[in-house]
Write a structure and sequence with these properties.
Layout lengths: L2 H11 L15 E4 L8 E7 L2 H10 L3 E6 L11 H12 L3 E4 L2 H4 L6 H12 L5 E9 L2 E14 L2 H10 L4 E3 L6 E8 L7 H6 L4 E4 L4 H10 L2 E4 L2 H20 L2 E4 L5
Parallel strand pairs: 2-3, 2-11, 3-4, 8-9, 9-10
Antiparallel strand pairs: 1-4, 5-6, 6-8, 7-10
Helix pairs in contact: 2-3, 5-6, 5-9
């Protein structure tokens, strides 16, 4: 596919222009260009890291699609590790496209809606309601999920977490044996813990938490499933890559390496 057409499609599909630097300082868009005019193979990953770039070189991809970007609001000087990262892309003619909050807020290919839909499919839910809640920089990105079928809370650790590739960290601070609702907040959603408790959601599914935050959750008796940051945010780039493959037949490959 022509590179310019692909970039224009991504810009439009992800509504990049709706997210300025005041809303999201991650410079969403094409962050590193290449002389290639055709994109035949896309590598996708959560992070724009040196070792991910090594994998991209080995896989001979034409473009990398990432959630966590290489440039923030201020441009870095091209020295040390930043030079090493950039030189790997430039010397090997690999373009880099980053989408942070535009991907977070997308109704079809974002992590939280993906986690919610996976939850529904894994447990064969028939009677449920799903809705967005709370705004981050003015956009809804998190979801509530309520369901009529009771399930044992242990299945979050024994069934759901393994199938999602999450770390198996379940804290049943609410002491409930069965649950009928979850709040889904990828990344780091601790300011929603109290809201989830107030709204009587049985379990908060989120990415990561500090020692102090877990103490707070225990004091509030809010049960938590920690999936870790990267694990809860790999769903969005996978869904986006699948969408591009379906729409345009572009070959895609997940560059899956945590550390």
């Amino acid at each position: 596919m022509e590179k310019i057409k692909l970039i224009n499609y991504l810009d439009d599909y992800l509504k990049i222009k709706d997210f300025d630097l005041q809303m999201d300082d991650s410079r969403n868009w094409l962050q590193v260009d290449s002389p290639k005019t055709e994109i035949k193979k896309i590598g996708y990953a959560v992070d724009a890291s040196t070792y991910i770039f090594d994998m991209a070189i080995e896989e001979k991809v034409d473009m990398l699609l990432v959630h966590h970007w290489i440039f923030w609001a201020l441009n870095y000087v091209m020295t040390e590790r930043h030079y090493e990262r950039m030189s790997k892309l430039i010397k090997n003619d690999i373009a880099l496209y980053a989408c942070h909050l535009p991907l977070d807020a997308h109704p079809e290919v974002w992590n939280n809606i993906g986690i919610a839909k996976a939850f529904i499919n894994i447990f064969w839910l028939k009677n449920y309601t799903i809705e967005s809640f709370d705004k981050y920089h003015g956009v809804y990105i998190w979801y509530w999920l309520k369901f009529e079928e009771e399930m044992h809370i242990s299945t979050m650790q024994s069934i759901f977490a393994p199938q999602m590739g999450f770390e198996k960290k379940l804290y049943n601070f609410g002491k409930k044996e069965f649950i009928k609702s979850v709040a889904i907040v990828s990344w780091w959603g601790w300011w929603q813990a109290k809201e989830a408790l107030n709204e009587r959601y049985d379990l908060l599914i989120t990415g990561e938490g500090s020692h102090g935050q877990l103490l707070m959750a225990k004091e509030m008796k809010q049960s938590i499933l920690l999936g870790w940051h990267r694990e809860t945010e790999k769903i969005g780039v996978k869904l986006l890559a699948h969408h591009l493959n379906k729409e345009f037949g572009i070959e895609t490959i997940f560059l899956d390496q945590k550390y």
